[in-house]
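User: Before I run my own analysis I want an independent prediction to cross-check against. Here's the chain; please return only the C-alpha cells and, at the end, one sentence I can use as a sanity check.
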Amino acid sequence: MVSCSNDEAEKIADEFHTRLVSEDYDYIIENLTDGTTSSAEEWGDFFEIVRGWGKQNNRINTSNYNFKTTNGVTTVKLSYTFETDEFDLMYERLILIDRGDGYKLLTVIMDTDESVVIEGTKNF
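Assistant: C-alpha cells:
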C-alpha cells in the first residue's frame, strides 16, 4: 500500500530549504545529501551559484509526490517555484532517495527555465 504523501521526504526537503536560506551548506552536505552522485566540492560550487542569486522568496510546492521504487530503493521528486533578487521566477526539483535508512538528497536542480529542470530530472 502506497500513501499519496510522504512526510519523511517532505521533512528533509523543508530542512534543506531552511538550511539553504541560512547558508548552512556544510550541514546540508554532511547530513542531507546522499553522496553518491555529487561530491562535497560539487555541492559547494552549486551553493555558491545559488548564493549569488540573492534571497529566495515565496517558495511554493508545485507538485504531488512522484514515487518510484526499484529493487527496494525509493526515489521521490518534489517540485517548487520561488523568486530571487536576481530572477523573478525559478523552478526547482529535488530528487530524494531512500536506500532503507531514510531519505537523503540525491540531486537538486534550479533554473529559470522549467524545461531544463524537467529534462535534468527525467531519468529519476
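Sanity check: The helical segments are 7-21, 25-32, 40-52, 114-121.
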